[in-house]
Amino acid sequence: MRITDYSWHDFAALPLDTKSRLLAQSDGAPFHTLFAQQFNREMLDELGTLATEIRTIAKSKTGMKFLQSLLCHKRAMLYFSQPSSRTFLSFLSACQILGLSTGEVRDSATSSEFKGESREDSVRTFSSYFDMIIMRSRQKGLAENMAWSLSNSDRPIPIINAGSGQDQHPTQALLDIYTLQRSFERRGDLRDRTVVFVGDLARGRTIRSLSVLLMAYPNIRQVFIAPPQLQIGEDMLASLDSHGIKYELGDDLRAALPTADAVYMTRIQDEWDSVVGESTRIDTTQFHIGVDEMSLMRPDAVLLHPLPRRTEISVEVDHDPRAVYWRQMRNGMWIRAALIATTFGFGRRIHEYFREDL
């Protein structure tokens, strides 16, 4: 079956695992990238290897010219109707590395949506001019709906979900996994690790997507530390249960830190408050990492954060070599370049150049 064999209503009702199979190309590479569930262990390892090869090739002028020649015949639209700096610039840089020309809409007031055009019609318009749409939206399910719509149009082009409501952020999860891969590459791999998630776990889409990707690795224990009002959702716990994943829930950060191989901090997502100021009534003072908390962590553990941060990590921690969030941000550029190259079928060419010319 293909995505074109389903009406939108029937496609939307499918389980995520089934949808994910319908989004793949004949070689298994993603055409649309919408969900973390699309990526298995083999794909994650392949993308990580490709990202490292791209970053190595890009260190030389000759290598950068090669990379920029690969997709100079393609164009990408960055449609970010939800505010973003890191994700936007990361994708923009990834496109530039591979030679794609780019267009952008970052404020609906500058597009025909200001005149009343629907976002769906805007995306269909972009598909007339570009070969890929990278989109970020507060509207849950918009990327999925437009992927189905474009697949059923006379000009199907890939869509990459750069953040969809409170639901999914698959490429953030890819850069998180890539950061963990590189952090542990000298000490084996990601198997048999404990990952501690901290903060606003109920509304953090980065948490949801990374938790899914971690299921691809054997014997990963996931620990969720949050105020009761912000604890991970029942749907995610059901998914962990169905995959036989070990997990724990709690609210004692200091007790969890010594057990962690990786700690993933998040900020309070107050932009999703149903009432302005609602989050300020939740006591989050215990969900903070400073120098004292770092002393409780293992010498070889790592601290991640999707950024931006507020007060949940002290700036003094930035100088600790276990704090990898700035490296994590830079990794996003390379893994997103790897994803774009794979989507357009240029992964093998990059592998060949890496083996033959370096």
* Share of helix, binned: 40-55%
Q: Which overall shape is indicated by the principal axes computed on the Cα atoms?
A: globular
Name the poorly predicted regions.
none
Strand content: 5-15%
Structural class: alpha/beta
The strand count comes to 9
Order of helices and strands: HHHHEHEHEHEHEHEHEHEHEHH
Total helix count? 14
Largest sheet, strands/sense/barrel: 5 strands, parallel
**How much is the average pLDDT?**
90
Structural domain count? 2
Give me the CATH fold name of the largest domain: Rossmann fold
Structural notes for this entry:
The chain is an alpha/beta fold and about 350 residues long. It is built from 14 helices and nine strands. It folds into two domains: about 5-170 and about 330-355, Rossmann fold; about 170-330, Rossmann fold (3-Layer(aba) Sandwich), CATH 3.40.50. Strands 7-6-5-8-9 form a five-stranded parallel sheet, with helices on one face. A four-stranded parallel sheet has the order 2-1-3-4, with helices on both faces. Helix 5 (about 85-95) packs across helix 13. The N and C termini lie far apart (about 40 Å).
